[in-house]
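Fold this complex.
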Amino acid sequence: MTKTIPTISSTSIRSHGGARASRSLPAGVPPDTIVKWFRDMLLIREFEVRTMQAYQEKKIGGFCHVYIGQEAVAVGCTAAIRPDDPMITAYRDHGHALARGMSSRHCMAEMFGKIGGCAKGKGGSMHMFDRANNLFGGHGIVGAQTAVGTGLAFATKYEDEVINGGRSDRVTLCFLGDGALNQGVLHEAMNLAGLFDLPVIFVVENNGYSMGTAIERGTTMAHDLSVKAAAYGFDAIEVDGMDLIAVYEDMKAFCDSCRAASRPGFVDMKTYRYKGHSMSDPRKYRTREEEEHFESGDPIGKLRDVLLSAGVLDEAAVAAMQKEVRAEVKDALQWSEESPAPGIDELYHDVYVERWGPYTGTSLPEMLREEKR
Amino acid sequence: MSATAVREIEFRDALREAMSEEMRRDPKVFLLGEEVAEYDGAYKVSKGMLAEFGPRRIIDTPISENGFAGLGIGAAMMGLRPIVEFMSWSFSLVAADQILNNAPKMLYMSGGQFGCPIVFRGNDGAGGQLGSTHSWCVESLYANVPGLKMAIPSNPYDAKGLLKTAIRDADPVFFLESERMLSMKGEVPEEEYLIPFGQAAIRRTGEDCTIVSFGRPVHFAMEAAETLAAEDGIECEVIDGRTIRPLDLDTIVASVRKTNRCVVVDQSWSFASVGSEVAAQISEHCFDDLDNHVHRVHADDVPAPYASNLEQEMLPNPRKIRSAVLSACYRA
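Structure:
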């Protein structure tokens, strides 16, 4: 006897993109704030385009995963939480770092392997950390950050309730790719989060592919990921990650409810990466038609149209902003070029907090020392 | 008994006292692991702690080592001080990604932004006929990784003093206990004390041969040393390393320069091990002082067997140590 397995067409799984209109401007958000989100998306796009160039020029080494196409996710999610809410993500992390407030200089210099980088050039593209902005990485092993993110939520709740005797008041956003859905650690982390009532939201940046494997080829129930959360007893939502206003509005409501209930949540954030998995990916596993379909619903273009038609910005203001963003990234490249390589004495620094043997203790990176001043 | 007599308590009680004292001192410290709370500890190490500290600080987890090790790491990045109990270090292998990739590297890959002040602790080594998967000695596997510290006490006094140091340490500490020693009694004073890392203890002085060991095999070394003194006229100096990272090389080197002979006893397998590292360092630092090559006693290079006689034969024991010392002293 053979069991009939329902086939889910890949078009239905990837039906979210395309040239549909954006939602209208959210009520109660000052226009300046939305303009700032727009600028953040422009900045990430420009930053990533220049990152690819710098990689081709061999100024950036190792593995490098760009965020082009997914900008609305990091920007909209950051807008939906508070600055004191922890955030953690995987290795496609430049967008989160910039959205959270890291300067493009420190982000770019990290990839250049320079001392001015957020991690002194010791982490690289996959390890963007920013303590001042509560960004806990940038993690390289698929799914590993989900257990750590659960621990961040454990800690905020423990601090708020056990140490300070108050009420849990923070949520942790823990991002993962759709490839991480099939790592055991995610399921351990989700079970722990459900069991311990931890305020952590697992945001699956579902761009449809784990490297070259389409989601339905590697993940059961790919057409309805909410069942993964149901198995651990918490709520799930599906969000159009190609529309910044949808991301903001849906995530704001969901984060508020998880915060109030001090409970975990799960988000199937439908998005699309325009470029390959990493810099060495020829994208032979998908069609150009599919790519064009998603690019026709570009999140930046959509928000621009809304802002223009609402009269918040005019064409001249958009052009000026694009120019400004190009200058900012150009400056970041120049600054990264000029930032010195880490001294050889950095090799034995930051291995242990304590000094012993050949190890010389630890110190904060320039980025945080500047902010302290 | 005189009024100044030091009380004797079990190894497990010493561990519990260390954790409880640190939890009373610092609200950021909490204990997480399988069966640590309602069950009072699989080996009764945390007995009574749930009653004192409540379920928010003594936390039962499901059998998800990778998940709860990672949870502890996230909490440590936020500045809490988790103690994560592995019922056995054998089970830590399924958490290898978290404990080896995240805990010891977080400070470095974040460029000094996020440390990981966490203690992983539990039973290491053969428990007694537990078979191949439950008898791991993880010291040689894990000591290879920079960024972590490793302590391996051999008696209740050290267990308490080293664990208190581990809990206060700003870096991740792998704390290796032994099921076979949990009921061992030893003198532990009432008053507070800490034992710094990187300070070996000389358990017995002697002029003829140095024996370096860590954890439970220190006792086998002591037994062998008594036999060697009584029957062979060889006086051994027995050094208990106490911590593997940092390693107190100074104490070891000073002793070998005096005795000119050395036997290293390490309960893990010999290939690429703590024992081979210590032997290599002695060779580097004492090359001109040595009358013979450094001898090593390890577990036999086979999976841990179930049968009692085979297990006993596989592990380091006083007979093997005595024979290595005799060989090092050209008396074999």
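Chain A has one domain: 29-283+312-372.
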